[in-house]
Amino acid sequence: MKLVIYGKGGIGKSTTTSNLAVAFARRKKSVLQIGCDPKHDSTFPIAHSLIPTATEVLAEKDFNYDEVDKDDIIFTGYEGIACVEAGGPAAGVGCAGYVVGETIGLLSDLGALTAYDIILFDVLGDVVCGGFSVPLQHADYAVIVATNDFDSLFAANRIAAAVAQKGKSYPVKFAGMIANRCSKKDLIDALSARLDSKTIGLIEENSSIRTSRLGGKTIFEAAESDPALVALTMPYIEIADYLLSNPAAQETLPLSDREVFSLLTEIESAAK
Ligand code: ADP
Ligand code: MG
């Protein structure tokens, strides 16, 4: 099963993706996590370091794709999870989306896209253009990480629109939104309902989740030495199990930018 995790920058995609990767591994699945954000820190909590990016490796080989082996770009981390980082061009030059498309093409040529039970693409989703939409061509499901605020849901609606568009030519389905870093999810639920979708999990804001990520660990690994943290792994397990059940996904009905604006402002003002 291939999953694309989208969401606005800084919303918690990589934290969520890494913890989901471990949840799948704990269910005895072989897992590949592909960081598709030029920030190239997606797999840091799994690999425990910033691994060389596919772009860096290709540059070392003067962009001779034939000279790249699996071992040059795929690194094994916690629980045997395989890690790849696409990387990005130097700031101000080149196109980060293009790099994502090239990395996925390279992994496909190396046979890596058919070698795992679960592949997670962790993709920046402020704008789903060009290369950033390539993972959708390979995916079974798209999932959006959002928090209960206007900016993240505005981005989420745009991502849902991109998924619906790709869904016309590819098998990808929208599985729903994961609410992250929030105690309330009324706005997320409202948008989910209007998209004919659902909120598939709620992960609260928790300082241990933040510090574990900064320390290069998932909450699962942190919980090995602090049993009080085990409860924090549960939402990730529940989301992974839900996705493993091959949920049916309804056709999404993305709203126009103006409709999202009115929906969210109406709810906010009704709550005051
Ligand atoms: P993204 O990949 O979307 O850019 P990150 O996963 O890097 O976002 O997360 C951004 C910041 O938010 C990090 O410092 C991370 O530790 C923190 N974070 C993510 N999820 C949570 C959470 N549920 N509780 C507390 N902090 C979180
Ligand atoms: Mg990230």
What topology does this entry show?
Blueprint: E1 2-6, H1 13-26, E2 31-36, H2 44-47, H3 54-60, H4 70-73, E3 75-76, E4 82-85, H5 96-109, E5 118-123, H6 134-138, E6 141-146, H7 150-166, E7 173-180, H8 186-194, E8 199-203, H9 207-214, H10 219-225, H11 230-244, H12 257-271
Parallel strand pairs: 1-5, 1-6, 2-4, 2-5, 6-7, 7-8
Antiparallel strand pairs: 3-4
Helix pairs in contact: 1-11, 7-12, 8-12
The chain binds adenosine-5'-diphosphate and magnesium ion.
Describe the structure.
By secondary structure, this protein is of the alpha/beta class. It contains twelve helices and eight strands. It has helices spanning 13-26, 44-47, 54-60, 70-73, 96-109, 134-138, 150-166, 186-194, 207-214, 219-225, 230-244, 257-271; strands spanning 2-6, 31-36, 75-76, 82-85, 118-123, 141-146, 173-180, 199-203. It has an eight-stranded mixed sheet, sandwiched between helices. The protein starts with a strand and ends with a helix. The structure holds adenosine-5'-diphosphate and magnesium ion. Magnesium ion (MG) binds next to α1.
